[in-house]
């Protein structure tokens, strides 16, 4: 690039004849255009602050002059035009070099225009200024590298790092850090006070980031030998990538990562100090990556234990997923998370933000807050303080993460969440249903509180929560025959305090709620203790206006072999309710073998359930001699009776392993095969297929039955019409 060789005469002319060497702005226009740049280059460093903007504008005007034609190319007209414009573009280059050499004094409000004026020409200009013998001009070149944000100038910045002048080396150090921040695209709000000098220019020259990474890596490896630049090491920390696999990293990136894992390098001690003392949120977030292992781990953990601002917390929490790595989880668990003096709230400025800082976090950071609290190994009191704020988080994902990791006793608060997923997760964590735990009667205070909570959950708007509450309620009360833990609790109560159990059962049998009475009778049947309550059960059997209660009582009286019980059952055979008559028939068959004569008239009952109960009971008393009645039900024109016939056949044909079946069985099996294939009722076909499959599991059957078992049962019809 062209540069004026002699500037002494223009400088003396511009300085005037006064006692001071300060330049005289009135004489600038009097100089020839070819000599102005050199004169201003030497005069601006000596000018008063108020005169500098005028001189800079003069240089800008000259640097912006057109003239980029190639004097060797084109036709005769182009070469002539280039010859005529050569002085103009030569003067523009000189002005641009002069501008680079005095960049340190360019006002901030003029830097944007100056950068635009030299667009596309700064690389050679900076190299020319950086080669100057004047330390002021070399420092200006380093500052221009920082402001121009052109990655192509990174080699010059690295060369100036070893400059003998401390101001030049310091400016070059900041220039490399500035380039690293720009090419990596960091958020300016995450740089912190340490990197506040990195400002976004109005014009940025595009260039590949690999150039900056390579120069920063080279400069970091030469730390201690050629320079002591702290900002260059900060740039190395910002550009390092410790997450991607080594095979996916470029060669400069691998050099940076190798430096951070080399404990005996002179730069590692300075890197550890930067990590520990930096106030940059971006560097604090990167400490999550270095906390697992390596020479920077101690400094990274110390930095993570302190937070100076909301940005410090947000930067770390948005990367909280990195804590899921077991090595990082173990390392971070050593960082103390302390409570405030009241012992309830979190202390300020720690690894986990307190409630006031949490309220200012973004939704992404609050999600990371819940994730971080879930992964850390915290004391119960600290964990309660961590998740206390998450209960009112407006973000559903954050609340869901919190309910999965909070203390078990705190999960109860989330069961009333308006979101069904959160309420269901909380209910599953809080509930004891399905666990090998049984309640003792009388209940202790904890079970009493849980029972009261279940009463509230039974009114939950979420169906899943109501179902979980119902299952847990069955475990907590000894009156649910369907739940194993409930039956165990009832049996333990009966064994340990039979009078108390019997008194409680009698009070429940006298209740007006049919559901309570039915539950109690079913428990008495399961415990085989109905004999003690014969008088109460006989009274319930007589309450034909409560058909469900009477039918359940009839089933319970089937285990009592007394004359009074048989008499009560015989009187109930004339009841109008079909379910009561069916249960009475089955109970009579269990109490006495002389009941066969009573059952005969019910084998032709118009209701299919009573008829099926009578046929099944007679088979139990007389054996296979009654299988013809089963075949008659299977051939009935009414679909309900065929359905009941399949039910009776399934119970009559199963359980015969090792027993010779009569010839009648083959006919029933053939009929079942026909029903499974061709019956007009979908409900009958489906039950027949299930019956065939169950029979096949227990005995050898003809090929036709095996073919019928391959039929997919059709779903039962919602409405069936009798044939």
Written description of the protein model:
- The chain is built from 39 helices and no strands.
- It has helices at residues 8-15, 33-43, 52-63, 76-101, 108-117, 122-130, 135-148, 154-160, 166-184, 209-221, 230-239, 251-260, 266-277, 281-290, 297-304, 310-317, 326-332, 355-358, 363-375, 380-388, 396-405, 411-414, 420-430, 445-457, 463-476, 484-496, 498-509, 514-526, 534-541, 547-557, 563-571, 578-591, 596-600, 608-622, 627-634, 639-653, 663-678, 682-698, 703-709.
- Helix 4 crosses helix 6 (122-130) and helix 30 (547-557) packs parallel to helix 32.
- What is the tally of helical segments? 39
Overall number of strands? 0
Poorly predicted ranges (pLDDT <50, ≥5 residues)?
2-7, 17-21, 67-71, 79-86, 200-204, 714-723
| Mean of pLDDT | 80
Q: Helix/strand-derived class?
A: mainly alpha
User: Radius of gyration, rounded?
Assistant: 46 Å
Reported for the largest beta sheet, the result is: none
Shape: elongated
How far from one another are the termini?
Answer: 108 Å
User: Beta-sheet strand percentage?
Assistant: under 5%
Query: Fraction of residues in helices?
Result: 55-70%
